[in-house]
Design a protein that fits this description.
elongated, 3-stranded antiparallel beta sheet
Length: about 180
Amino acid sequence: MMSVKNNIKNKNSCQQIILNSILSKPITFMRLVSESKYASETVEKYAKILLDDHKINEKKGKFRIFYSPLLNSNEIEFYELMLNPTVKAVTLVLLKSKPLSQIELVAITDKSNPSVSRALRLLFDHKLITRNYHAPFSTYNIINKSKVLSFLKITSPVISNNFDKFDICYPKPSIFLDVHN
């Protein structure tokens, strides 16, 4: 009899842990498995129960994302966009700096030029950045930094809470622009 009670208690606590993880921030299925330390089958089982009970929502795409029903589609799109490490790096650098060129972003983020170019295109298509033309180059900046920071606070609390500690120190962001002034 005691083992049945423990088993029921275990199921409830497992489901509650999964629910709390999802409600605290959007999360991919694999990250949920990793953070909860439960088998993928167990997470799948409780996620299905929570979805059926309408306690959580799910977005399927390149990644399977679980999220709170209180979040809106813009916040989920932003979260999905930030799953790309280059997009995340470019966004964080642009949040912390003045407008930068693609070459400066490549140097600062240590990402490849094609990767940074794709990231800029995605951010531009989602209307998060503007492109300012300066012959022979362009600079990019975040359109509404407070909006992006509010999205970060909801979708990536760890980054948001430690954003002040993030510093752009190498190389100096103004190197490329100084050459053309």
